[in-house]
Structures are given as C-alpha cells and as structure tokens.
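Quick one, T. Sequence first:
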Amino acid sequence: MDKKWIYKHPTILFDFDNVLCDTTKHCLEYYNKAQGTNLKIEDIKSYDLSQYGDWKIFSKIFKSKEFWQTLPEKGNSFEILQEIINDGRYDCFIGTSTITNMEYFEKCKIIQSRISGFKMSKIIPIKDKSKFRAELIIDDYLGNLDECAPFMKCICMDMPFNETDRKYIHIHSLEELPDILEDLFY
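Structure tokens:
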C-alpha cells in the first residue's frame, strides 16, 4: 500500500449530471416531447445542446421542477456510490453546476433519498471544479477534467460528446469504479 494513504482517505469528487443521473438523455426526452423531434443521446456529439435545438426550450426544461423530480439514475450509480462510502476508505463529495437554487435543492433531495446518511455539506454547488481539491474527479465534461488534470487523477464517464478523447481513464458506468479505485490507491 502507498504510505501516503495510511493517514488520509483519498477524496473523490463525483459529478452529478451524466455520472450519477442520466441528465442529458432525460432532457432529450423532454425536448422531443415538447418539440415533436426524435433526438437521441447518440446524436449529441457536443456538450453544447444549442447545436441540436432551441436553447430556450432546453433552458426551460432545466428550470422545470418536474424535470428534476423525474430524473433517472444512471444505471445503479447510487448503489455503487453507497458501497464506496460504506467501504470507509474514501471521502466522497458530489459537485454539481446548477442554474437555479431550485435545481440545487432538487438534486440534494435526489441524493438524500438514494444515499443513506449522505451529508448535505458534501454536496457542492460548483461550476469551476478545479477550485475543489481532491485526489480524483469523475466527470463527463472534458473541460472540467482538463482543468483538474494538473492536480487530480481524472476519470471520464463515457458520453457521445467525449468518446473521441482518450487522454483519461474512461468508464461506461460506475460499476467499473471499485476496481479502478483499488488500482489507483491501494
């Protein structure tokens, strides 16, 4: 075991959108219903949704309480995160960029309802994730990973808009994470 971890638990920053929950896919479902379109997650090759439709409609969706209240989990991500927390060797935080206070509080409700005993103080509303210091970040947005790479290990959650970049470890689901954590820290 690397001695630097004997007295300190590695800190992990999990992104909320597209890591813990299927935010973009869910947004496309709402957009398709509102606009009569047939956009699929596979069509989204850029993080900028305005390239695929009316940004005003996308923005209205993201500001909708119903949207956040019906947001699905990405696979069994909350179960995996709970297992990592229960392992006791890691200090886990969730960082998320939010547009409104309502969005932040709805995300907090989702987290609290799915992760037993997760402290509100570990849910960070943050746009610039490079301001947070952790040993590892898990995010889908390459811009965040690029900014964090000089001082954090980075894992990229696969999405169609980041599939061509391979400078970081890529995972398809959080189920892959426990083995990777063992390799990185123990």
